[in-house]
Amino acid sequence: QVQLVESGGGLVQAGGSLRLSCVASGIIFSFYDMGWYRQAPGKERELVAGIPSLGSTTYADSVKGRFTISRDNAKKTVYLQMNNLKPEDTAVYYCVAASRLNGKDYNYWGQGTQVTVSS
Predict the structure, then answer these.
(1) What are the CA-CA distances from residue 97 to residues 14, 83, 84 (Å)?
(2) How far apart are CA 51 and CA 33, in angstroms?
(3) pLDDT tens digits for range 4-22
């Protein structure tokens, strides 16, 4: 059974920092591209940051220079360090794992963790 379990969300004042973690189980973690999405009330889900199994990281323009995604394959964990948080960063943040193996696509989502930034 595949599980992605996020943690680290919470309430923080504008300008503060949070570090989200996502621990994966049931997958060969190093084979998967990992990412963080977020969804604010009334808005569509959007990609925040991605880190492939091999290659460079990507970021949404709105978080470049403030957020950093990283992964530890030995711990099967992906992180999202969020600095200089803004009220518009308030959303539910989701961890996602994606891979294409033997011609088949695999996509898994975590349950989400709430991030609230007060002004």
Answers:
(1) 29, 23, 26
(2) 6
(3) 999 999 999 999 999 999 9
pLDDT tens column, 65-81 = 999 999 999 999 999 99
DSSP the chain: --EEEEE--EEEETT--EEEEEEEESS-GGGSEEEEEEE-TTS--EEEEEE-SSS--EE-TTTTTTEEEEEETTTTEEEEEE-S--GGG-EEEEEEEEEEETTEEEEEE---EEEEEE-
Q: What does the pLDDT look like over 21-31, one tens digit per residue?
A: 999 999 999 99
Token reading at 117 = 């930034």
Per the CB < 8 A criterion, the answer to whether 105 and 97 are in contact is: no
Are the C-beta atoms of residues 49 and 36 closer than 8 Å to each other?
Answer: yes
Residues 6+ apart with CB under 8 A from 31: 53, 99, 101
